[in-house]
């Protein structure tokens, strides 16, 4: 389905932002944007728990966003959460309330996925050039680094350092002096050292800063004539002069240079320390600014899904190559699993269910690359912890569940509620794998399946089970597997099936 209006919600560590856009062919034109300075990261306790005050601020912002989004279809809105909600131990509880306030699902995305989306947003707000770019995005709790060319990111990393977290750690009372500033710069430099070699080796021609920290600093440098000559953007010399001004003021409360944005001032010292370390460690002299970042990237990624350019499909194909999946078997299982699901009857969100089942069928044997024994467990582990561009953490967890459940005992899926639609996908995948145990292209029997009030039913023709004792034994065992989790799987053939 295609939409005229789409929206992205960014639950950042410093601010929550909403961007609404109008789709015209392959372009997105901004219609509306909202920003709430929530400072979620400042509410993260040493025990990695979100305190009540920060949760209240976040939920109030999401309620306001929800009012603006009211009436939009679920498929036209994508909400993503970043670093603070990646690390908060009570993130799940907060997100349950957040989804109710917003009226739409919220995904927690991994750091590298955040970096990929930031790059997409940045390049869509910059002129098209033939050379490689380095994009740096300093958020409230993390900083993303991407090297890419045109629309393709080559290298993506996310480091656990941000303007909010560093300001709280090194400038908790707002005071700024040379010692504190240098301590923050050294800490950031140590993080950047971990990735510097790979980034310097790949190289780039143009450095670009995105998001609020880069914009706030670029504005300060230009409005206070801190850059050399008539240079715009961010320069190393300008950063050094800005740092000297901040130290001279002695605190953020006494810093009143032209161009200071009230919402950015409280986190300026942390952002400045990180950006100075980026320039120092990566040998940057000048950096341009890009208006587009995560929100715009989410919008264009969402647009790509409507136009059959879903990054998740590309990731699945890449994983199949990486883990040397037997494509013929994956295709057979996928086709049969989707047929079984269709026979079980349509439900709301069926198109998305088909997508997930297709991806799970394509990837159900990736664990064999680790070891054949228990390969479904290896596959689930890979899908849980690997970087999978386009997939949220929740998406990956669901894929991992399907792959884990495609063989063996089902008690390991006991956490799934009985009404969860994933049971239908697990059944479809398990039965498809079982019917294709011969791993060849022989025709399957004319089977039919249906959902029953207490489970599932499979009908087979004539004496097919008698002619295929190996599969008959496997189906008999399968009925016991389902019974152990409180669901009935009935297998009928011949006269039994005709008498249904």
Describe the model.
The protein is of the alpha/beta class and 500 residues long. It folds into four domains: 112 residues, Nucleotidyltransferase, domain 5 (2-Layer Sandwich); 165 residues, Exopolyphosphatase. Domain 2 (Nucleotidyltransferase, domain 5); 134 residues, Hypothetical protein af1432, CATH 1.10.3210.10; 56 residues, 2-Layer Sandwich (Alpha-Beta Plaits). It has 19 helices and 14 strands. The strands form three sheets. The chain has a six-stranded mixed beta sheet with strand order 8-7-6-9-11-10, sandwiched between helices. Strand 7 and strand 8 form a beta hairpin. Helix 4 crosses helix 10. It is elongated, with a radius of gyration of 26 Å. The chain starts with a strand and ends with a helix.
